[in-house]
Amino acid sequence: MPTRVDYYISGVADWTDIGTPSDYYGGQSFTASEAYALYSLRIKLLKTGTEDATVKIYATSGGLPTGAALASKTIATAGIPSSIDWVEFIFDSPPSLSNGVMYFIEVSSSGADLRFYDDHLTGSYSGGQRWIHPSNADGWSSSYPDDDHSFETYKSAAGLNPRRTMTGIGM
User: Fold this and answer.
1) What is the mean pLDDT of each run of 10 residues along the chain (171 residues)?
2) Four-point Cα dihedral 104, 157, 125, 139, nearest 10
3) What pLDDT shows up at residue 135?
4) Phi, then psi, of 78 in degrees rounded to 5
5) ω into residue 65 within 30 of 0, thus cis?
6) Cβ neighbours around 122 below 10 Å, total
7) Can you give the pTM of this predicted structure?
8) Is 123 helix (H, G, I), strand (E, B) or coil?
């Protein structure tokens, strides 16, 4: 069974609109508290239309994403709730995270507004912060450095892949 490792769970329901017409990407930086393979990521989302959601994990430089994505996963609109709830993105090739290193979660949408929930009143995650990126602007912005998006990272138990099952005896 996967084990939760790094997380921030917001107590306040606010959000960043992702996709069109707002044309924003959402982001959250986080610091790995141990070395592990990132099996999955859960974030709080809701859809307001028929959009897909994509998350990407990046290494960082100065707290911002750099280089190619370490992992990416898209969930079709059918897997995104129309009321606030956790959505799990299970990575096909889990990236290896290093203890004490900061990483970046990027959330984007293929269509109308998707809401990525955050806490802009009492954010208290010390290992990173909430970011936004208007698609018509250069770079990421953090006008509220104390804000944080709700997220949970998971590793698989004992390095096992929990999606793999035995289908016969003696295999």
Assistant:
1) 89 63 76 97 84 91 93 89 89 97 90 68 76 72 76 78 41 35
2) 10
3) 66
4) -65, -25
5) no
6) 11
7) 0.84
8) coil
**147: which 2 tokens?**
């804000």
DSSP readout, 31-89? E-SS-EE--EEEEEEEESSS--EEEEEEEEETTEEEEEEEEEEEE-GGGS-SSSEEEEE
Residue 90's closest CA among 78, 102, 106, 73? 73
DSSP state of 98: -
Two structure tokens written together for 107: 């959330």
**What residue type is 123 in one-letter code?**
G
CA dist., res. 129 & res. 29, Å (int): 5
Instruction: Return the structure tokens found at 151.
Output: 């997220």
